[in-house]
Amino acid sequence: MAVIELKNVKKVYGKGNAQVEALKNINFKADKGEVVLIMGPSGAGKSTFLTIAGSLQKPTSGEVLINGEDISDFSAKKRNELRLNRIGFVLQAYNLVPFLPVEEQFTLVDKVKKQNNLSRDELNDLLKQLGITDLVKKYPSELSGGQQQRVAIARALYANPEILLADEPTASLDTKNVEEVGQLFKDLAKKRDKAVMLVTHDPRLEKYADHIYEMMDGQMTQKK
Ligand SMILES: Nc1ncnc2c1ncn2[C@@H]1O[C@H](COP(=O)(O)OP(=O)(O)O)[C@@H](O)[C@H]1O
Ligand SMILES: [Mg+2]
Protein backbone atom coordinates (compact mmCIF):
# COMPACT_ATOMS: atom_id res chain seq x y z
CA MET A 1 0.00 0.00 0.00
CA ALA A 2 1.18 3.51 -0.77
CA VAL A 3 2.22 5.32 2.39
CA ILE A 4 0.75 8.49 0.95
CA GLU A 5 -1.84 8.93 -1.76
CA LEU A 6 -3.77 11.91 -3.16
CA LYS A 7 -6.96 11.27 -5.11
CA ASN A 8 -8.57 13.95 -7.28
CA VAL A 9 -7.21 16.70 -5.07
CA LYS A 10 -8.16 20.27 -5.85
CA LYS A 11 -7.16 23.42 -4.03
CA VAL A 12 -8.72 26.81 -4.63
CA TYR A 13 -7.47 29.90 -2.82
CA GLY A 14 -9.56 33.06 -2.46
CA LYS A 15 -13.04 33.95 -3.62
CA GLY A 16 -14.77 35.39 -6.69
CA ASN A 17 -12.49 37.25 -9.09
CA ALA A 18 -9.51 36.66 -6.87
CA GLN A 19 -9.81 32.87 -7.06
CA VAL A 20 -6.69 30.88 -7.82
CA GLU A 21 -6.98 27.21 -8.69
CA ALA A 22 -3.61 26.15 -7.28
CA LEU A 23 -4.19 22.39 -7.70
CA LYS A 24 -6.50 21.17 -10.46
CA ASN A 25 -6.93 17.42 -10.16
CA ILE A 26 -3.98 15.77 -8.54
CA ASN A 27 -3.55 11.99 -8.38
CA PHE A 28 -0.35 10.90 -6.73
CA LYS A 29 1.16 8.01 -4.74
CA ALA A 30 4.44 7.53 -2.91
CA ASP A 31 5.93 4.43 -1.30
CA LYS A 32 8.41 3.87 1.48
CA GLY A 33 11.96 3.36 0.33
CA GLU A 34 11.61 5.84 -2.52
CA VAL A 35 12.70 9.36 -3.31
CA VAL A 36 10.13 11.31 -5.32
CA LEU A 37 10.88 14.69 -6.88
CA ILE A 38 8.16 17.20 -7.65
CA MET A 39 9.60 19.74 -10.08
CA GLY A 40 8.21 22.78 -11.83
CA PRO A 41 8.44 26.56 -12.06
CA SER A 42 7.51 29.07 -9.42
CA GLY A 43 3.75 29.37 -8.96
CA ALA A 44 3.08 25.86 -10.33
CA GLY A 45 1.51 24.69 -7.06
CA LYS A 46 4.42 22.72 -5.59
CA SER A 47 4.28 24.15 -2.07
CA THR A 48 0.51 23.86 -2.03
CA PHE A 49 0.84 20.21 -3.00
CA LEU A 50 3.43 19.53 -0.31
CA THR A 51 1.53 21.26 2.49
CA ILE A 52 -1.65 19.34 1.60
CA ALA A 53 0.24 16.03 1.39
CA GLY A 54 1.73 16.84 4.80
CA SER A 55 -1.61 17.82 6.30
CA LEU A 56 -0.59 21.41 7.00
CA GLN A 57 -3.68 22.49 5.07
CA LYS A 58 -6.80 20.81 3.70
CA PRO A 59 -7.72 20.32 0.05
CA THR A 60 -10.82 22.08 -1.29
CA SER A 61 -11.96 18.66 -2.55
CA GLY A 62 -10.52 15.20 -3.01
CA GLU A 63 -8.87 12.73 -0.63
CA VAL A 64 -5.52 12.51 1.09
CA LEU A 65 -4.74 9.00 2.34
CA ILE A 66 -1.96 8.12 4.75
CA ASN A 67 -1.44 4.35 4.88
CA GLY A 68 -4.89 3.99 3.34
CA GLU A 69 -6.66 6.19 5.86
CA ASP A 70 -8.43 9.30 4.54
CA ILE A 71 -7.19 12.27 6.54
CA SER A 72 -8.98 15.00 4.58
CA ASP A 73 -11.63 15.39 7.26
CA PHE A 74 -9.40 15.00 10.30
CA SER A 75 -9.89 17.60 13.03
CA ALA A 76 -7.06 20.07 13.73
CA LYS A 77 -6.08 17.99 16.77
CA LYS A 78 -5.85 14.75 14.81
CA ARG A 79 -3.88 16.44 12.05
CA ASN A 80 -1.44 17.80 14.62
CA GLU A 81 -0.93 14.31 16.01
CA LEU A 82 -0.45 12.89 12.55
CA ARG A 83 2.19 15.48 11.69
CA LEU A 84 3.95 15.05 14.97
CA ASN A 85 4.14 11.26 14.74
CA ARG A 86 4.37 10.34 11.10
CA ILE A 87 5.51 13.28 8.99
CA GLY A 88 8.80 15.18 9.02
CA PHE A 89 9.01 18.59 7.35
CA VAL A 90 12.00 20.48 6.09
CA LEU A 91 10.59 23.84 5.11
CA GLN A 92 12.09 26.48 2.87
CA ALA A 93 13.41 28.68 5.67
CA TYR A 94 14.73 25.66 7.64
CA ASN A 95 12.71 26.81 10.68
CA LEU A 96 15.51 26.39 13.17
CA VAL A 97 14.94 28.26 16.42
CA PRO A 98 17.47 31.12 16.29
CA PHE A 99 18.13 31.40 20.03
CA LEU A 100 18.82 27.70 20.62
CA PRO A 101 22.08 25.87 19.89
CA VAL A 102 21.87 22.83 17.63
CA GLU A 103 21.64 20.28 20.47
CA GLU A 104 18.64 22.07 21.97
CA GLN A 105 16.79 22.02 18.65
CA PHE A 106 16.32 18.32 19.46
CA THR A 107 15.38 18.68 23.13
CA LEU A 108 12.70 21.09 21.94
CA VAL A 109 11.17 18.22 19.95
CA ASP A 110 11.17 16.10 23.15
CA LYS A 111 9.04 18.75 24.84
CA VAL A 112 6.39 18.64 22.12
CA LYS A 113 6.53 14.92 21.32
CA LYS A 114 7.44 12.77 24.27
CA GLN A 115 7.55 9.30 22.70
CA ASN A 116 9.20 7.40 19.88
CA ASN A 117 11.88 9.95 19.14
CA LEU A 118 15.37 8.68 18.34
CA SER A 119 17.46 7.43 21.26
CA ARG A 120 20.62 9.27 22.25
CA ASP A 121 22.72 6.70 20.33
CA GLU A 122 20.54 6.87 17.24
CA LEU A 123 20.70 10.67 17.27
CA ASN A 124 24.50 10.55 17.57
CA ASP A 125 24.65 8.15 14.60
CA LEU A 126 22.42 10.44 12.58
CA LEU A 127 24.53 13.51 13.40
CA LYS A 128 27.63 11.57 12.38
CA GLN A 129 26.02 10.43 9.13
CA LEU A 130 25.12 14.06 8.39
CA GLY A 131 28.58 15.32 9.34
CA ILE A 132 27.26 17.76 11.95
CA THR A 133 28.47 16.17 15.20
CA ASP A 134 30.90 19.04 15.84
CA LEU A 135 28.21 21.68 15.43
CA VAL A 136 25.99 20.78 18.40
CA LYS A 137 27.05 23.77 20.53
CA LYS A 138 26.63 26.29 17.73
CA TYR A 139 23.70 28.60 17.03
CA PRO A 140 21.93 28.60 13.64
CA SER A 141 23.45 32.01 12.76
CA GLU A 142 26.94 30.47 13.09
CA LEU A 143 26.19 27.78 10.49
CA SER A 144 26.48 27.85 6.70
CA GLY A 145 23.38 27.30 4.56
CA GLY A 146 24.36 23.67 3.96
CA GLN A 147 24.93 23.07 7.67
CA GLN A 148 21.59 24.63 8.62
CA GLN A 149 19.94 22.46 6.02
CA ARG A 150 21.49 19.32 7.50
CA VAL A 151 20.48 20.33 11.04
CA ALA A 152 16.91 20.93 9.81
CA ILE A 153 16.91 17.48 8.20
CA ALA A 154 18.27 15.90 11.40
CA ARG A 155 15.58 17.61 13.44
CA ALA A 156 12.84 16.39 11.08
CA LEU A 157 14.23 12.84 11.34
CA TYR A 158 14.70 12.96 15.10
CA ALA A 159 10.96 12.47 15.55
CA ASN A 160 11.30 9.27 13.50
CA PRO A 161 8.67 9.98 10.82
CA GLU A 162 7.68 7.55 8.04
CA ILE A 163 7.35 10.36 5.56
CA LEU A 164 9.85 13.14 4.98
CA LEU A 165 8.72 16.20 3.03
CA ALA A 166 11.13 18.91 1.96
CA ASP A 167 10.39 22.18 0.15
CA GLU A 168 13.28 23.41 -2.03
CA PRO A 169 15.86 21.66 0.17
CA THR A 170 18.81 22.69 -1.97
CA ALA A 171 17.91 26.34 -2.60
CA SER A 172 21.07 28.35 -1.93
CA LEU A 173 23.38 25.31 -1.68
CA ASP A 174 26.49 24.92 -3.81
CA THR A 175 26.94 21.79 -5.92
CA LYS A 176 29.04 19.92 -3.36
CA ASN A 177 26.36 20.42 -0.69
CA VAL A 178 23.63 19.49 -3.17
CA GLU A 179 25.39 16.18 -3.83
CA GLU A 180 25.68 15.51 -0.10
CA VAL A 181 22.07 16.37 0.65
CA GLY A 182 20.85 14.39 -2.40
CA GLN A 183 22.80 11.31 -1.33
CA LEU A 184 21.49 11.70 2.19
CA PHE A 185 17.86 11.75 1.02
CA LYS A 186 18.54 8.65 -1.04
CA ASP A 187 20.12 6.87 1.95
CA LEU A 188 17.16 7.81 4.14
CA ALA A 189 14.80 6.20 1.67
CA LYS A 190 16.90 3.10 1.03
CA LYS A 191 18.48 2.44 4.44
CA ARG A 192 15.82 3.80 6.78
CA ASP A 193 12.82 2.97 4.59
CA LYS A 194 11.35 6.46 4.54
CA ALA A 195 9.12 7.91 1.86
CA VAL A 196 11.00 11.04 0.79
CA MET A 197 9.18 13.71 -1.21
CA LEU A 198 11.17 16.68 -2.43
CA VAL A 199 9.78 19.79 -4.06
CA THR A 200 12.49 21.43 -6.11
CA HIS A 201 13.44 23.09 -9.33
CA ASP A 202 17.02 21.92 -8.96
CA PRO A 203 17.94 19.48 -11.78
CA ARG A 204 21.02 18.44 -9.77
CA LEU A 205 18.69 16.30 -7.60
CA GLU A 206 17.27 14.26 -10.49
CA LYS A 207 19.87 11.52 -10.29
CA TYR A 208 18.84 10.66 -6.71
CA ALA A 209 15.15 10.21 -7.57
CA ASP A 210 13.20 7.00 -8.10
CA HIS A 211 10.31 8.98 -9.56
CA ILE A 212 10.00 12.47 -10.97
CA TYR A 213 6.80 14.46 -11.42
CA GLU A 214 6.49 17.74 -13.22
CA MET A 215 4.04 20.29 -11.95
CA MET A 216 2.68 23.05 -14.17
CA ASP A 217 -0.31 25.34 -13.59
CA GLY A 218 -1.70 23.08 -10.86
CA GLN A 219 -1.39 19.86 -12.87
CA MET A 220 1.03 17.02 -12.39
CA THR A 221 2.59 14.70 -14.96
CA GLN A 222 4.83 11.75 -14.18
CA LYS A 223 8.17 11.92 -16.03
CA LYS A 224 9.96 8.96 -14.45
N1 LIG B 1 -2.23 31.33 0.75
C1 LIG B 1 -2.46 31.63 -0.54
N2 LIG B 1 -3.47 32.46 -0.90
C2 LIG B 1 -3.74 32.77 -2.18
N3 LIG B 1 -3.04 32.27 -3.22
C3 LIG B 1 -2.02 31.44 -2.93
C4 LIG B 1 -1.68 31.07 -1.59
N4 LIG B 1 -0.61 30.22 -1.63
C5 LIG B 1 -0.31 30.08 -2.93
N5 LIG B 1 -1.15 30.79 -3.71
C6 LIG B 1 -1.16 30.83 -5.20
O1 LIG B 1 -1.29 29.49 -5.66
C7 LIG B 1 -0.45 29.24 -6.77
C8 LIG B 1 0.54 28.12 -6.43
O2 LIG B 1 1.44 28.60 -5.42
P1 LIG B 1 2.52 27.66 -4.73
O3 LIG B 1 1.88 26.40 -4.29
O4 LIG B 1 3.23 28.46 -3.69
O5 LIG B 1 3.50 27.35 -5.97
P2 LIG B 1 5.05 26.98 -6.00
O6 LIG B 1 5.45 26.43 -4.67
O7 LIG B 1 5.18 26.00 -7.13
O8 LIG B 1 5.79 28.25 -6.33
C9 LIG B 1 0.21 30.59 -7.09
O9 LIG B 1 -0.55 31.22 -8.08
C10 LIG B 1 0.16 31.32 -5.78
O10 LIG B 1 0.15 32.72 -5.98
MG1 LIG C 1 6.98 26.98 -3.35
UniProtKB/TrEMBL annotation:
It is found in: Cell membrane. InterPro entries: AAA+_ATPase (IPR003593), ABC_transporter-like_ATP-bd (IPR003439), ABC_transporter-like_CS (IPR017871), ABC_transpr_LolD-like (IPR015854), MacB-like_ATP-bd (IPR017911), P-loop_NTPase (IPR027417). Pfam families: ABC_tran. It is a peripheral membrane protein. Its main location: membrane. It comes from the Bacteria. One of its GO terms (molecular function) is ATP binding. The keyword Nucleotidyltransferase does not apply. SUPFAM superfamilies: P-loop containing nucleoside triphosphate hydrolases. Residues 4-224 form the ABC transporter domain. SMART domains: AAA (SM00382). Belongs to the ABC transporter superfamily. HrtA family. The complex is composed of two ATP-binding proteins (HrtA), two transmembrane proteins (HrtB) and a solute-binding protein. Part of the ABC transporter complex hrt involved in hemin import. Responsible for energy coupling to the transport system. This is Putative hemin import ATP-binding protein HrtA. It comes from Lactobacillus kitasatonis. The lineage of its organism: Bacteria, Bacillati, Bacillota, Bacilli, Lactobacillales.
